[in-house]
Amino acid sequence: MDKILLYIVSGETRASWDRAIEISKGLSATLYALFVVDKDIVKTVSDLRKTDEIDTAIKIEEEGWKYLYYLEDMAVNQGVKTALFVEEGDTIDILRKFVKEKKIELLIVGHRRGLRIEGRREERMVQQLIEYVQCPILIEKEGGK
Amino acid sequence: MIENFLDVDLIIFFDKVEDKFTMIGEMVDRALKKGIIMTREPILHKIREREELESTGVIEGIAIPHARTEAVKDLLIVISVIKEGLDFNSLDGKPVNIVFLIVAPEDAKHEYIQILARISRMCRQEDFRKSLMEASSPSEVMSLLKSFDT
Fold first, then answer.
1. How many Å lie between the alpha carbon of B102 and the closest alpha carbon of chain A?
2. Is the Cβ pair A81, B53 closer than 8 Å?
3. 3.40.50.970, 3.40.50.620, 3.40.1390.10, 3.90.1210.10: which CATH number matches A3-141?
4. How much is the pTM?
5. What is the predicted ipTM?
6. pLDDT for the residue B89
7. Selected residue of A60, A84, A88 to mutate for chain B interface (largest B Cβ count, 10 A)
8. Which residues pair with A34 in a beta bridge?
């Protein structure tokens, strides 16, 4: 296996980061890490905070880059080759295309319990991933719950 | 945020460069001549080590080689503008015209990641990339960075 993709949901899904690094290292695979500035999330956040959608998207994207560079720092310290990506749009659509275009062999995604709005949205997202993304998916349970 | 780490003397214009490591060497030498860093080899070694592990040609003609090392005391940003695109072995295979070299002390991880995130985010903006590539002087690059760093 050469190409593993970690979809970074948020900074609270660190168990999936650790798992992705561990597996990539074990298989000497390149770890692709992707953060998506999801258009629906941008709209929801800007509606809730009454902020401009462009400004909200900028803030979310910069936060995403921080997650990516933190992950990269962890991975590189363990000798794992990484490639970082940020995309904008619909998460499922982007993941589906990304997996196909980059010939990803394993997708890793963190999953939290759906107790909050974010969690419920992530649950739906995981269900859609299983349905639409054409590669094996490892769902890492976050927080041991 | 980025403004605090910029120095107009650390913005270099090249017509053409031989290869990425020669250029990075020249960027580090510029900081050495300015007295901002005291040593060259440990920094180059760290950058080379990182580049061998991963190519940092990240965004449409812009590369951001970066590393943390005890060889620097403060976060350092050196910028190169290369008229004739350079093969950076980037994932998209496109030549690179702008290089941001970012080197930070080992204990400045948070600041280092904030700067990387800000620059990466700015570089995804098409108008920023276009303006940078059309810039003709270090002071123009400096002004652009200040105006887009919001």
1. 13
2. yes
3. 3.40.50.620
4. 0.92
5. 0.90
6. 80
7. A84
8. A7, A85
